[in-house]
């Protein structure tokens, strides 16, 4: 592999001609491939089809405490559902609310409530303040940033490092600025970098001094059981760390079964201190008489316990690991050694984050589109869609078949090479 950055202009021009010829041939194939969103593939969804047969007209439809799951009630979830998710998230049953079908929905509503009523009794509604700001470790999850935009919350970019967000930057900012009220975190197998926060990062989050008394960490633990290897990453329990540091109301933990069972047909959960949970329940009671308990019972009877959940997640891994390997092998064989891109091999989650040479991401995405491959928009992983170095592209390998993915990666790698050579020739 030759390092493109040391080639002479003449050599680069030759490489450019060869790549362009290949690119034009690819365009003639009229491909239509999609690597844009982190969706489970149909065969992953099939793994949970058994859940559809769990309840029928003949099944007893009472929960453990006698609740008829067909009727109203159970605002914060069935006891067995709370116990199941408490085990997954390592919190107590009093520290959890079982929501509807989506954790993003819970995050949106939590921000909305903070805007309208404040984060707890006696706290000022954020919407009454002249300015509300959130810290946004980037690259991050675009839909978190969209929630901020919707509520006119100013976003401040924070760098991602190898073991989590840059805590020096964060500690300084939250200590100085009272209008910083929150931060978005995907602490395990982060979207898109695939990294897990270190114990030190978790402890610093729990104990840092914040100028805003009502500062909240939005801890989106979406990929907590989504391992790709037999040696899963371990994430330190932030609620326990916050309690130990005397800041137990600081963290709001979100998760869901969207990528465990059915995406959009799963269960979202919110975990936090008992104090926060009581406050949310009071407001939630005005919003709904209770969530879908039929879906809760389906999930609980399907999994029965956390051990079965682990076995189920291994089946997911056996479907998607070969896809991650395919992407990583292609990157290594086509881009490795050329000094035109970098990426991290994740131990779990749904994405591979790729960094081009500065200033090339937009070009790569539009070239790939021209050749029939849809990628997540360049910049989407940054607040306001603005990647200051125009270099990050989120690769989502799970949805396409292995054959489609291989083709899509051929196109992707070619586009990265072409865009890089064009940049180096400028
Ligand atoms: N959080 C993260 C980090 C995600 O990547 C996703 C989906 O891609 C979600 C939340 C959405 O979760 P849900 O389907 O529970 O709303």
From TrEMBL:
What InterPro entries does the entry give? Answer: AspAT_Ic, PyrdxlP-dep_Trfase, PyrdxlP-dep_Trfase_major, PyrdxlP-dep_Trfase_small
One function term, GO molecular function aspect: L-aspartate:2-oxoglutarate aminotransferase activity
CDD domains, A to Z: AAT_like
Instruction: Give the superkingdom in one word.
Output: Bacteria
Q: Which PANTHER family match?
A: AMINOTRANSFERASE, PUTATIVE-RELATED, ASPARTATE AMINOTRANSFERASE
Q: What is this protein called?
A: Putative transcriptional regulator, GntR family
Q: What organism is listed for this UniProt entry?
A: Evansella cellulosilytica (strain ATCC 21833 / DSM 2522 / FERM P-1141 / JCM 9156 / N-4)
